[in-house]
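From the shared-data thread, chain only:
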Amino acid sequence: MGNGTIYRRGHSWCVGFTVNGGRRVPETVGPNKKIAQKVLSLRMTQVLENRYFPPSRQLGRTPFKNFAQMYLERTGPLMKSIRTERNRVLAWAREFGNRPLGQITRTEIEAWRRERMSKCRPATINRDLSRLRHMLNIAVEWELLEESPMKGMKFLRENNARTRYLSLEECQRLIASCFAPHIRAIVTVALHSGMRLGEILNLRWYDLDFASGFILVRDSKNGESRHVPMDATLAALFRAYPRRPGTDLVFFSSRGGRIVDVRTGFLNSCKRAELTDLHFHDLRHTFASQFVMAGGDLYILKEILGQKSITMTQRYAHLSPTYKIKAIDRMNTLWAGATPQASTSEVLPENPSVTAASQATYQDTPPALTPATDAALSI
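Structure, as tokens:
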């Protein structure tokens, strides 16, 4: 009967059927085979109509919209980018509405992914799916769902490396175009430290150690704290930046709370500076690129940026064509004063073939020891 089977185990008849695109569900019915056949027919109908729920626990009946609200209330404070992740949760709530959790299938999630591939980059799709996967895993953990339909689902391959970074002249032009003091300060910190926007907006005054010259990033993207060097420009900026009583945030909103977003101010500054196709994260790329072009070490850069692997750091260490040309010029200068050495053809005999006579000549036979050499080798 399709994907359903009836079999006997001991003195009882059992049924087995497939749900959620491949998960096998066994169920013991009893000693009567005809009843087991009717149970299997009922279960198969429930599966086809997305009405099957495990009989032992009423799992999967919670409406997705209600679950999303519970999820935000209990996990929202733990999210790193609260506004972005909250919007992702609400987007999924609009997608599934009041449908029970148990009716959401892997097939429709994959169909959603295929439809989005024509509109969004793989990284954007993966971030949205990652949030949904976490939600469904939490539903399983809270015993609202028996198994996540995304279990074992692979994400799209990402290839979103950007090579956009600014020259030093463009950096100065951008800073000069930031009219709002807090936007100018935030952009300057990003260009001089390589810190992420969220890390900058989370800075508090006790994170700045002027004595040692380091900025403490307490909660980075990879979950580990790190120390970022504070150059003379940043030290002067922080010393002169006004503080607001009642908050220890370095950068604060008009109400004294955390700044949520700087998109509008940043985009307006880019327009005034006549800089196109520039994202705020590209300021981090700019720091990394300028650091390497100034002779900085990649492993030191890895620690400054807070990357877990050197491979990730190399993505930020784009070298400009001009810098590569200068590297070639340095090699030309290096070899210009080198003393010519004998070539291989001058060292080796013209006919390197091995004969019986030449083999005897070049045998690795140890030289006979003289009394002088014997004494020199003795310990």
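The mean pLDDT is 82.
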